[in-house]
Design a protein that fits this description.
The two termini are 34 Å apart. About 6% of the residues have low confidence. The chain folds into 2 domains: 146 residues, no CATH class; 82 residues, Serine Threonine Protein Phosphatase 5, Tetratricopeptide repeat, CATH 1.25.40.10. Helices cover 70% and strands 3% of the residues. Helix 7 runs parallel beside helix 9, helix 9 packs antiparallel against helix 10 and helix 10 packs antiparallel against helix 11. The chain has 244 residues and is mostly helical.
């Protein structure tokens, strides 16, 4: 069962505009706005408006927009006798139907559904409610298996929950999706940074260093990667593992 509208409003009211802005960088991607329209396309505008409202710090506007989209997507997912999955292109849909969806009746949902669940998870994570956030992100990755932001957000929340091994799996999946689907390539640098962070949390300093260096090849000069590489270098120089 999902959060009520009042719960949504409370969660979003606790999220800062800075958190919302970080989220917008992902959602306002080419994958979202240039995805092919499918069932539920009308809700893409709601999710986009919710994102912009959060960027502006207008959580009261964002909450009912996301709630409305999720209510629709839930209804589609609960239709008996078929699955409902979000794709950004017919190529993705056909690839899915030749693979994990083969032989299963599947409704092609608009990418708005995967995005709505992902946005919900990120808003709850920003409100310091990671366990609830994870519930939405689990749905986001099920509904949008090729939607890379859902996987990176899931990795972020799993690290918040102190589960770096599971976070590493989520970030690795995001990277695999980015490699397999040109539409998702934009998330590669973020995925590498998430892999780096998770490996450092698992006390694999060398693995973390290599991951951050990979991210810098895609986004030279990224401040987060540079800062984390300095941290790793300090730990390696002293022979100490990262602080718990």
């Amino acid at each position: 069962m999902h959060a009520s509208w009042k719960t949504w409003l409370l969660a979003l009211s606790c999220a800062s505009p800075a958190i919302a802005q970080a989220q917008v960088e992902m959602v306002e991607s080419r994958l979202y706005y240039q995805a092919e329209p499918a069932t539920g396309f009308a809700y893409r505008d709601d999710v986009g408006k919710a994102t912009k409202a959060m960027l502006a710090g207008d959580m009261a506007t964002a909450a009912p927009l996301l709630e409305r989209a999720i209510k629709y997507c839930d209804a589609q997912r609960n239709q008996p006798g078929r699955k409902s999955v979000s794709f950004s292109s017919r190529r993705e849909y056909e690839q899915y139907m030749e693979g994990p969806g083969k032989g299963q009746p599947t409704e092609w949902l608009d990418i708005a559904c995967a995005s709505a669940y992902q946005q919900a998870g990120y808003a709850l994570a920003g409100a310091r409610r990671p366990a609830e956030a994870l519930t939405y992100l689990e749905i986001a990755t099920q509904v949008g298996p090729y939607y890379p932001v859902a996987w990176t957000e899931k990795g972020f929340v799993l690290n918040q929950l102190g589960q770096p091994a599971q976070a590493l799996e989520a970030y690795t999946t995001a990277l695999e999706v980015a490699r397999a689907h040109p539409e998702a390539a934009y998330v590669s640098a973020v995925a590498w940074r998430g892999i780096g962070y998770s490996k450092v949390e698992l006390k694999d300093l060398e693995g973390g260093r290599e991951a951050y260096q990979q991210s810098l090849q895609l986004e030279p000069g990224n401040a987060t990667a540079v800062r984390e590489l300095d941290y790793i270098a300090q730990r390696q120089a002293t022979g100490n593992p990262p602080a718990p």
